[in-house]
Design brief:
Chain lengths: ~230, ~200
């Protein structure tokens, strides 16, 4: 067995645990130094979810929540590649997404925003990457919504993404934003990300992904921690 | 040298449930859950154990929108993953998820099996990812069991300063049940790892 390890977490490109402008971080982020530990089998393994984990319509959010018609809003396609930080596509890895509807409302019980629920839109989806790391979702463009962080605070349009990658160490939960959104420059969650990596959270409009006469396309690639390029033999 | 920067993490937010734990939160219409708090369904071999706990913020208030993920070995210490060459105990994925928004006391409650030690010199443990609204990137920790002789030699526990080690060891709660509270801050702040 090779003792391959995973690349370290790129701390300089990650938001800090405590970002005072995002108020709820101040009581929730760890304050003591993290304890460095070796990468053991416990970290170098991780949950495996392949194509048998996903149902036919799971990647099409315009279909998987229908009751009596089509969901309202602007249909979009979100597609891209999952890569590791050595530039290799990550095959057969699960992506899970969740988002607000076109009006900026989540169906979650605790979302009290005064905007309509869409009976034909659930807002959750999942898919598994192909052999080269490609994925593709069909969905509705999510709306912006207010949140209580500060006076007149609004979250920019976004889609939540959850990924596993090759091990417990490559786990990533993030958010994808849309190009040209004026709320990005005002959002403490987006702005908590260091400037040098922030733009990688913003998708790119793509005419290639756009389906003529049907839906606009956005490209969003995701980079996970991968195996170190120079593995050592045990 | 890595070719591409890792995508930054963002908070899981308050509304993760219908994407990540739909069945636990009672969404009938939508996705089925890929993983939940009942990890030891069916005829999986091993001692059934319950692990429950709460997540406390810096003001010692329980957090109602945290998500806990568990990754663990089977009763013989084997992981259901190709990097573990020893094969797997069929039917046990080793992965569980539980949000803290359903239990009236904001507990996470996992029903699972007690893992075996993954290697000589290691103590049995569960690997934990903690995330929540108000946390921009997830934190790694571990749950160990009390009264395990191997805790004394475990290579990870031994990296932890002695006075903080107890934050990683579950407390017995009756027969085959344990409590593991997670403190995000304060004197009892749980040890989180850089790994």
């Amino acid at each position: 067995m090779t003792s391959e390890t995973f690349t370290p977490r790129d701390w300089s490109g990650q938001p800090a645990y405590i970002a005072p402008d995002y108020k709820s971080t101040t009581l929730r982020g760890p304050t003591k130094p993290l304890i460095p530990i070796p990468q053991t089998l416990s970290e170098l393994t991780g949950p495996v979810y392949g194509h048998d984990s996903v149902d036919t319509h799971d990647a099409d959010l315009t279909r998987n929540g229908r009751r009596n018609g089509e969901p309202l809003g602007e249909r979009i396609i979100v597609a891209g590649r999952v890569l590791d930080d050595n530039g290799r596509g990550v095959p057969n890895t699960l992506l899970e997404i969740w988002q607000a509807n076109a009006a900026g409302r989540y169906i979650h019980q605790t979302d009290q925003h005064d905007a309509p629920i869409d009976p034909n839109f659930f807002g959750g989806g999942r898919c598994v990457t192909d052999a080269d790391g490609h994925y593709r979702f069909m969905t509705i463009k999510p709306g912006a919504y207010p949140w209580p962080n500060h006076h007149n605070a609004w979250r920019p349009n976004h889609i939540h993404f959850s990924l596993f990658g090759g091990s417990f160490l490559s786990r990533l939960v993030t958010q994808m934003y849309f190009p040209g959104d004026p709320l990005l420059d005002l959002d403490p969650i987006f702005l908590a990300t260091p400037e040098q990596t922030r733009s990688s959270l913003v998708s790119r409009f793509s005419l290639d992904i756009t389906q003529p006469g049907f839906a606009l396309g956005y490209a969003f690639d995701i980079v996970l921690r991968g195996r170190d390029a120079t593995p050592m033999e045990a | 040298m890595a070719k591409s920067r890792q995508t930054p993490s963002q908070t899981v937010g308050p509304y993760f449930a219908y994407g990540l734990t739909p069945e636990q939160y009672g969404y009938q219409h939508g996705l089925r859950s890929l993983a939940g708090p009942d990890m030891a369904a069916g005829d999986v071999e091993g001692l059934r154990v319950r692990i429950e706990g709460r997540v406390f913020d810096g003001a010692d208030a329980p957090i109602s929108d945290a998500l806990i993920e568990i990754w663990q070995a089977d009763a013989l210490g084997r992981y259901a993953h190709p990097a573990d060459p020893r094969g797997r105990n069929s039917g046990f994925t080793g992965f569980g998820r539980c949000g803290t928004g359903i239990d009236p006391r904001n507990r996470f409650i996992f029903d699972t099996i007690k893992p075996g030690a993954p290697a000589d010199g290691q103590a049995p443990h569960l690997n934990v990812i903690v995330m929540m609204r108000g946390m921009l990137l997830h934190a790694f920790t571990r749950i160990y069991f009390p009264d395990e002789a191997a805790n004394a030699t475990d290579p990870v526990l031994n990296r932890v300063p002695t006075d903080r080690r107890s934050t990683l060891i579950a407390i017995p709660l009756g027969r085959d049940a344990y409590r593991f509270d997670i403190h995000m801050q304060g004197e009892r702040e749980t040890v989180f790892f850089d790994v």
